[in-house]
Amino acid sequence: MSMLETSRTVGLTNDALTRRERVVLAELAEDVTLEEIATRLFVTRNTVKSQVRSVYRKIGASTRAEAVAWAIEHGIR
Length: 77
What we know:
Blueprint: H1 3-9, H2 19-28, H3 34-41, H4 45-59, H5 64-73
């Protein structure tokens, strides 16, 4: 983890994510597409994409794998 990545996630708690963002993040840990997540959550794929971007920004992730690792580390999965 680089210094930039460390500075982005230091002090960030699960509370920084909305309930829906936590649900979407947990869904990302499954082997499913964004379309499948959207169907499960009764929203559009674009809504899920928007929520995923927000999660990535808040936790400092740039890939799904980084986001899933963060979720596991923070007990969201």
